[in-house]
């Protein structure tokens, strides 16, 4: 059985270290804003939207763990798959920083005995799934694999 520290370490490592898969941080590094905003078709999501989606739900898990009410439907509709307002390096760096910071906040929450673990466990599966999508979108653009 995993301890909270083991879980936090595993989650933290997923973003910073390559193991059996590329790290989550590597999945978004080296992309231009145009590559991050690219969609295979209009109804599909971009890497940028997926990064914002992951960050939003991590922040939502943390809000709920802190006893705050869940986000209203209007907030979810606006933020869930938010695309870039502007396709600039500054905006893309901001999205990547939010992604990194939300990841570290979830890892820290996993170590807190007062925080429920169900949100952290749900985020792990959620994040692995969506980072796989990011890697596939990279491949669709002909970008080199991340090892």
Radius of gyration, rounded? 15 Å
Shape: globular
Q: Structural class per helix/strand content?
A: mainly alpha
Mean pLDDT: 89
Q: Main beta sheet: strand number and arrangement?
A: none
Share in β-strands: under 5%
Number of strands: 0
Oligomer: single chain
Distance between the ends: 29 Å
Q: Write down the secondary-structure element order.
A: HHHHHHH
Give the helix level as a range of percent.
Answer: 55-70%
Poorly predicted ranges: none
Number of distinct helices: 7
Task: Please tell me the total number of domains.
Answer: 1
Give the helix/strand layout.
Elements: H1 4-16, H2 24-28, H3 33-37, H4 47-65, H5 73-79, H6 89-111, H7 118-140
Describe the structure.
The chain contains 7 helices and no strands. With 147 residues, the chain is mainly alpha-helical. It has one domain. α1 packs antiparallel against α6 (89-111).
Relevant terms:
147 residues, mainly alpha, 7 helices, globular
Would you summarize the structure shown here?
This protein is an all-alpha fold and 147 residues long. The chain has helices at residues 4-16, 24-28, 33-37, 47-65, 73-79, 89-111, 118-140.
